[in-house]
């Protein structure tokens, strides 16, 4: 899908993390110093314990082999100056290199502990051992250089230059040099330049001494060539190892910069809040059934747990960090709207999951359940992103919810999987549908629409292989029930007007939390509690509790006041098909699934999106009319006389819908969602921007006889919104 260009944020590259690929050094000296300290504080990053021991052992063994050779010659021949020189140099090199090796590998740990202790006592004080830590990789590379020099100076050619009594039994230095080279190929980090310099010096020294022996020039050239190849390989391996260390550090720094530190520190706190809220809910459920003398202690416990939950959410700063990022480029009206509507200013035994299976035989039997024209529509569920729920509503005679619900129970084999009673399914869906009010937006058509959106996302991502039959049952019930009984007003409106719903919620939950969402849960499970509508009756106790928890969690996630809380927790985690085996992680993804589906119209084709946008706008305007009549402040974008619809939709799509879909698809990594959904949101933004520029000053005060949309883009008008939304409603009734 071709995306119409629209203004986007610019990603700024971090210039401080640039490196010179010739020297493998950071261009910024402070970053270079930070890199060395980072690697020194994590010794396992550049050498494991077993590797360190092996290097030290084999390093010593190589020198000891040469020492043993010279010692054996002492017993076979008279002591010469050459032998004394060889033994002295080899033993001295063995001791020195071991000391250097110890300083390089072990002293950094001691220094790091001492430095940490000093910094705790005095953060501004520089550690006495910082120089040792900073140079630890140099000690190790220098031990390699010293050992190699000693071996070269003890070769027969070097002895000819020093002593007249040549020791012909001296071992050739070439095997030792090759062994040391491979041994140290990945022993250190940040010493690539030194290793290049050391190898050049060693090769020149070895070449000079070998070429000096003119009676075997061909052998000398072959030996030099062999050592040259070995050193080239050594340098390449060292380069690769240093580059991997640099990339590890850069990845660490980038993750620190992109993740709000406070958010990550408080993720566990946010997760615990959900568990506390679950406890509060369970206590409220048992409260009516307990004896009178136990009610007061339970009510007191609920109050204390509620305070703990509120304190915890107060400390959670994820919402603020994301809200600050979004609000930085907003005008005052958009800020007020987001603060009012999209921020919160106001364990079970899980059975082994099984891959969901579509009922293959259903397609041939659809005519048994639905009329032909309805069959053609419902067959698009989970396949067509731009599923037309308005058409479904019209063709089914105002029964979109019960129709799509019945179809999905069959499509995903839910009925057979749990031996559900079909008559109870029909009665449950029918009662649920009738419990929806005739609002412009929050109605049964919307419920059917978001289920279709969710099933498309599941079908076109790895979720299709991760969700069990029980999960799908929970998804279907939660999506169809998520707005049941919605009065057409926001939570904020109900609380400000002290509506009966808000007062009831306040009695049981306190602080007017998720007034509507708790009501939706209550109505859904009240219907399920009726004997002839209890579709969950065949489930065992564990299955029922699991479905109940998942349904409630998903419905509560649709509270707009929790939007930035949930998004903040979700967007900095890496979910995949393997991680969804964990129930809590799967529940996080399902919360996001219902959220993106709930505003699915934002990513639908432009005509579908505009229809839904006009309906939600009319619902807002009706709320604004009541607020005006009651002499109360009118909520942002609820005043039909001042609201510029194009502007409000641009803010919603850019600041709410697009980040939400991008976060979801960062998890799902679906090309279908990228092309069908995210690109379409960008197209819808561009379309509203075009209309805003051509109709910027118009509101409903300038009612004109022309229709809402004309065939010519240049004459598009956003007037007559009320009459057009009424037309949409009447058309599909």
Automatic annotation (TrEMBL):
<dbReference type="GO" id="GO:0046872">
    <property type="term" value="F:metal ion binding"/>
</dbReference>
<comment type="similarity">
    <text>Belongs to the cyclic nucleotide phosphodiesterase family.</text>
</comment>
<dbReference type="Pfam" id="PF00233">
    <property type="entry name" value="PDEase_I"/>
</dbReference>
<feature type="transmembrane region" description="Helical">
    <location>
        <begin position="224"/>
        <end position="241"/>
    </location>
</feature>
<feature type="binding site">
    <location>
        <position position="649"/>
    </location>
    <ligand>
        <name>AMP</name>
    </ligand>
</feature>
<feature type="binding site">
    <location>
        <position position="598"/>
    </location>
    <ligand>
        <name>AMP</name>
    </ligand>
</feature>
<feature type="binding site">
    <location>
        <begin position="442"/>
        <end position="446"/>
    </location>
    <ligand>
        <name>AMP</name>
    </ligand>
</feature>
<feature type="transmembrane region" description="Helical">
    <location>
        <begin position="138"/>
        <end position="157"/>
    </location>
</feature>
<dbReference type="InterPro" id="IPR003607">
    <property type="entry name" value="HD/PDEase_dom"/>
</dbReference>
<feature type="binding site">
    <location>
        <position position="482"/>
    </location>
    <ligand>
        <name>Zn(2+) 1</name>
    </ligand>
</feature>
<dbReference type="InterPro" id="IPR002073">
    <property type="entry name" value="PDEase_catalytic_dom"/>
</dbReference>
<feature type="binding site">
    <location>
        <position position="483"/>
    </location>
    <ligand>
        <name>Zn(2+) 1</name>
    </ligand>
</feature>
<dbReference type="InterPro" id="IPR023174">
    <property type="entry name" value="PDEase_CS"/>
</dbReference>
<feature type="binding site">
    <location>
        <position position="483"/>
    </location>
    <ligand>
        <name>Zn(2+) 2</name>
    </ligand>
</feature>
<keyword id="KW-0812">Transmembrane</keyword>
<keyword id="KW-0472">Membrane</keyword>
<dbReference type="InterPro" id="IPR023088">
    <property type="entry name" value="PDEase"/>
</dbReference>
<feature type="binding site">
    <location>
        <position position="446"/>
    </location>
    <ligand>
        <name>Zn(2+) 1</name>
    </ligand>
</feature>
<dbReference type="GO" id="GO:0007165">
    <property type="term" value="P:signal transduction"/>
</dbReference>
<protein>
    <recommendedName>
        <fullName>Phosphodiesterase</fullName>
        <ecNumber>3.1.4.-</ecNumber>
    </recommendedName>
</protein>
<feature type="transmembrane region" description="Helical">
    <location>
        <begin position="195"/>
        <end position="212"/>
    </location>
</feature>
<feature type="binding site">
    <location>
        <position position="483"/>
    </location>
    <ligand>
        <name>AMP</name>
    </ligand>
</feature>
<feature type="transmembrane region" description="Helical">
    <location>
        <begin position="53"/>
        <end position="71"/>
    </location>
</feature>
<feature type="binding site">
    <location>
        <position position="598"/>
    </location>
    <ligand>
        <name>Zn(2+) 1</name>
    </ligand>
</feature>
<keyword id="KW-0378">Hydrolase</keyword>
<feature type="active site" description="Proton donor">
    <location>
        <position position="442"/>
    </location>
</feature>
<keyword id="KW-1133">Transmembrane helix</keyword>
<dbReference type="InterPro" id="IPR036971">
    <property type="entry name" value="PDEase_catalytic_dom_sf"/>
</dbReference>
<keyword id="KW-0479">Metal-binding</keyword>
<feature type="transmembrane region" description="Helical">
    <location>
        <begin position="83"/>
        <end position="107"/>
    </location>
</feature>
<dbReference type="GO" id="GO:0004114">
    <property type="term" value="F:3',5'-cyclic-nucleotide phosphodiesterase activity"/>
</dbReference>
<feature type="domain" description="PDEase">
    <location>
        <begin position="358"/>
        <end position="695"/>
    </location>
</feature>
């Amino acid at each position: 899908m071709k995306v119409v260009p629209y203004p986007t944020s610019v990603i700024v590259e971090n210039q401080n993390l640039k490196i010179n690929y010739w020297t493998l050094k950071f261009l910024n000296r402070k970053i270079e110093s930070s890199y060395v300290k980072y690697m020194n504080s994590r010794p396992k990053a550049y050498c494991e314990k077993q590797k360190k021991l092996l290097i030290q052992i084999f390093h010593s063994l190589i020198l000891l082999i040469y020492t043993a050779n010279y010692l054996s010659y002492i017993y076979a021949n008279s002591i010469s100056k050459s032998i004394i020189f060889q033994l002295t140099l080899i033993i001295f090199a063995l001791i020195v290199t071991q000391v250097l090796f110890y300083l390089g590998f072990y002293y950094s740990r001691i220094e790091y502990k001492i430095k940490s202790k000093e910094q705790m006592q005095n953060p501004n004080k520089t550690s006495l051992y910082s120089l040792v830590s900073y140079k630890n990789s140099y000690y190790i590379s220098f031990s390699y250089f010293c050992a190699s020099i000693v071996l070269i100076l003890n070769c027969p050619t070097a002895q000819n230059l020093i002593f007249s009594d040549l020791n012909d039994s001296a071992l050739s230095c070439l095997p030792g040099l090759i062994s040391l080279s491979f041994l140290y190929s990945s022993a250190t980090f940040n010493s690539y330049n030194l290793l290049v310099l050391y190898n050049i010096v060693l090769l020149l020294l070895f070449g000079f001494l070998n070429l000096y022996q003119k009676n075997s020039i061909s052998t000398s050239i072959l030996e030099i060539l062999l050592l040259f190849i070995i050193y080239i390989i050594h340098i390449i391996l060292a380069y690769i190892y240093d580059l991997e260390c640099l990339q590890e550090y850069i990845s660490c720094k980038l993750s620190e910069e992109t993740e709000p530190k406070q958010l990550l520190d408080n993720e566990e706190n946010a997760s615990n809040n959900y568990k506390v809220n679950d406890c509060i809910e369970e206590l409220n459920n048992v409260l009516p059934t307990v004896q009178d003398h136990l009610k007061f202690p339970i009510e007191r416990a609920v109050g204390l747990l509620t305070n703990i939950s509120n304190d915890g959410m107060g400390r959670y700063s994820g919402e603020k960090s994301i809200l600050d990022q979004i609000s930085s480029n907003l005008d005052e009206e958009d800020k007020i709207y987001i603060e009012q509507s999209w921020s919160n200013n106001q364990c079970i035994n899980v059975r082994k999951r099984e891959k969901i299976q579509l009922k293959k035989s259903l397609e041939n039997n659809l005519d048994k359940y639905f009329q032909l024209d309805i069959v053609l529509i419902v067959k698009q569920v989970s396949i067509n992103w731009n599923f037309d729920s308005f058409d479904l509503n019209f063709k089914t005679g105002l029964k979109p919810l019960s129709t799509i619900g019945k179809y999905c129970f069959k499509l995903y084999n839910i009925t057979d999987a749990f031996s559900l009673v079909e008559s109870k399914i029909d009665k449950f869906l029918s009662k649920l549908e009738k419990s929806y009010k005739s609002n412009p937006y929050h109605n049964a058509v919307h419920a059917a629409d978001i289920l279709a959106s969710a099933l498309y996302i599941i079908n076109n991502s790895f979720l299709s292989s991760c969700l069990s039959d029980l999960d799908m049952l929970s998804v279907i019930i939660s999506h169809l029930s998520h707005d049941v009984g919605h009065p057409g007003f926001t939570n904020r409106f109900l609380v400000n007007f002290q509506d009966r719903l808000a007062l009831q919620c306040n009695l049981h939950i306190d602080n007017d939390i998720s007034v509507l969402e708790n009501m939706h849960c209550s109505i859904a499970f009240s219907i399920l509690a009726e004997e002839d509508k209890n579709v969950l009756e065949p489930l065992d106790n564990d299955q029922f509790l699991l479905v109940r928890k998942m349904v409630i969690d998903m419905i509560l996630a649709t509270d707009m006041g929790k939007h930035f809380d949930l998004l903040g927790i979700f967007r900095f985690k890496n979910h995949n098909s393997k991680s969804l085996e964990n129930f809590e992680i799967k529940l996080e993804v399902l919360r996001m699934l219902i959220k993106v589906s709930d505003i699915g119209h934002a990513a639908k084709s432009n005509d579908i999106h505009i229809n839904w946008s006009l309906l939600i706008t009319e619902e807002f305007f009706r709320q604004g009319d009541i607020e005006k009549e009651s002499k109360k402040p009118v909520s942002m974008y609820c005043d039909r006389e001042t609201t510029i619809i194009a502007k409000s939709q641009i803010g919603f799509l850019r600041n709410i819908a697009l980040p939400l879909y991008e976060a979801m698809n960062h998890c799902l990594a679906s090309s279908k969602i990228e092309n069908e959904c995210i690109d379409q949101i960008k197209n819808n933004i561009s379309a509203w921007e075009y209309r805003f520029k051509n109709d910027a000053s118009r509101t409903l005060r300038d009612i004109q006889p022309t229709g809402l949309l004309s065939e010519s883009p240049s004459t598009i008008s956003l007037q007559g919104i009320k009459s057009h939304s009424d037309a949409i409603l009447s058309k599909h009734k």
